[in-house]
Amino acid sequence: xxxxxxxxxxxxxxAPAAEGGEPKLSKNQLKKLAKGKGKKQKKEKPxxxxxxxxxxxKKEVKxxxxxxxxxxxxxxxxxxxxxxxxxxxxxxxxxxxxxxxEASGFYKGDAAAAMGRPADEKFVMVIPPPNxxxxxxxxxxLTAAVEDTLTRWHRMKGHSTLYVPGTDHAGIATQSVVxxxxxxxxxxxxxxxxxxxxxxxxxxxxxxxxxxxxSQLRHLGSSVDWSxxxxxxxxxxxxxxxxxxxxxxxxxxxxxxxxLGNWSCALKSAISDIEVDHIDLEGRTFLEVKTHKxxxxxxxxRYEFGVLTHFAYPVEDSEEFLVVATTRLxxxxxxxxxxxxxEDSRYTHLHGKFVIHPFSGRKIPIVLDPxxxxxxxxxxxxxxxxxxxPNDYECGKRHDLEFITVLTPDGAxxxxxxxxxxxxxxxxxxxxxxxxxxxxxSAGELLNTKHAVLP
Length: 455
Hints:
Blueprint: H1 27-38, H2 90-94, H3 97-104, H4 111-115, E1 122-126, H5 138-156, E2 160-164, E3 166-167, H6 172-186, H7 190-193, H8 195-209, H9 212-220, E4 230-231, H10 235-250, E5 262-264, E6 269-271, E7 285-287, E8 303-305, E9 307-314, E10 321-326, E11 337-340, E12 354-356, E13 363-368, E14 381-384, H11 390-399, H12 426-442, E15 451-453
Parallel strand pairs: 1-2, 3-4, 11-13
Antiparallel strand pairs: 5-6, 7-8, 9-10, 9-15, 11-14, 12-13
Protein name: valine--tRNA ligase
GO biological process, one term: valyl-tRNA aminoacylation
Region (Disordered): 1-78
């Protein structure tokens, strides 16, 4: 809006309309329009994320030519004859050196030279023998590096050094592998062959498959004396073991006794704790057992684990019952005692008494054991099967109880379990025993109890 006294600017003159109602352009406007038509129009830049991306040019990768070791075995490698590689090639660099080191005897121990030297100028390292059934892993590599470093350090100090390589026959692991191979190829097990023939098969297997570990050690470059390589079943080592046991026997350090151990029904052999896979169950769990025919109560034939089964032992010359619980009901066939705590007031009147086994009719003593029994857990009464449980085993020794083994080597119930259950596989027997106990409850012979799932 214009101020007072100031004339307002005139509005811009509009171009006169041409015929048809379109505005008529001036000469200057026509010239500008003509110039604009001759210019190249600028392309609008594409919005972010649109448009074609330029792909980087791919470098041509020349295929790596396979390295061929031209050095004769045992001779020193001539690096001048090997073309210079674009990148480090461990296969080309490491090839042939180990053979030359061995042929030159650089790492051989000199027993004669070591005899007259003081103890602090001698160093001997025996490699912890890896299992011949496997192959070296990163842990072996670390251990070998540390051992080799120590050996080389002593060697550089001028000491008499010896680094001894070898492999372990691995006992159960090798036996299992060879037996599986025998069963697959010949349909036989070690018992069919006999001891001597089976040992021969192990040696054959070792010669065929057991050299990969020594090959790996050679690739690591360990400075071992390969002329002294040993296998734990070598005749010389076997003689040394026998000699050691003879000396122990002569000193009265050896004895024979029954001990509770881990038994493999598949291998028919005792196995160490380290060879047992322990599984923690969280309550009721159904698992497949390949050596069994299958649980008829489960659609998939699986067996129930992780459940406490309660049952009652009748007290001799009494109408009273002593209730116990177990997760392994089949072991009750070998029970030889029921333990209570000596300070448990609930059972003071049962001190020195007996209970009667519901199937065999055996008299089973009630023993007082403050070590094993926890008064606050369950009923405060514990069934004792010394031959089939580590804690019960110790309790059996403390109270001089009878040890009754109720299982065969393949995991079936033996004659000690009674005619009713003899020959049943242990988990099938577990089901049958539970049913038999229920029948006795129904007949009024036993107290009715219940199942409890482990928390």
